[in-house]
Amino acid sequence: MLGLGLQVAEAGLMTCVFDIRGHGEHPFSLDRAVWADLDAAIKFCHLYGTVTAIGHSLGGRLALLSNADNCIAISPSLSRKYSERTQEALQTLRSHRVRPEDIATLLAIQEQLPIWDPDQDKKKTLILFAERDAPEISEGCNALKKTGVHVVQIQKALHSDIFFMEETFAVVRDQLKNWYG
């Protein structure tokens, strides 16, 4: 996410990039307080003005649910439940990125989070998802697109690399310019 944060900063916006618990160098393992971490960061950033939360996967869902003014959710984990195949992929791909490695913790957090309702949330929102994303993510994003939510599919991307893609950077930069001038 640092690369994406750099792209946002280069667009002329103040940027705050942090690891939510269980990710990167955050000292705590993933648990239900992950949502509180994001809200604390957004509260701090509100001291400087309007806040756009940008997150990937679980972070994308948290961004949608956050108290930010605007939101960009990248391959957000919109579902509460995942198929066995997706759970196996998460276990394999996430083991080096998220602590704890126990997928049950992640799935329990997913089940406890509210489902984002665009009709109840009036913040400006952009959702991006990968052409080759998890089926549950693709289905959820396509369903939101049908309701009028601004959703963009990133071609040739996987769930695990969408935030590295130049097309993702371009769509995010364009959206931020649209919102902030």
Question: If you had to describe this structure to a student in words, what would you say it looks like?
Answer:
The chain has helices at 2-10, 34-45, 58-65, 84-94, 103-112, 135-146, 166-180, and strands spanning 52-56, 70-74, 124-132, 151-158. The protein is of the alpha/beta class and 181 residues long. The chain has a single domain, classed as Rossmann fold (3-Layer(aba) Sandwich), CATH 3.40.50.1820. A 4-stranded parallel sheet has the order 1-2-3-4, sandwiched between helices. Helix 6 links the parallel strand 3 and strand 4. The radius of gyration is 15 Å and the shape is globular.
Please tell me the overall pLDDT.
89
The radius of gyration is 15 Å
Number of helices: 7
Number of structural units classed as domains: 1
The major beta sheet can be summarized as: 4 strands, parallel
Give the H and E element order.
Answer: HHEHEHHEHEH
Give the CATH class. Alpha Beta
Strand content: 5-15%
**Percentage of residues in helical conformation:** 40-55%
Main β-sheet, spatial strand arrangement: 1-2-3-4
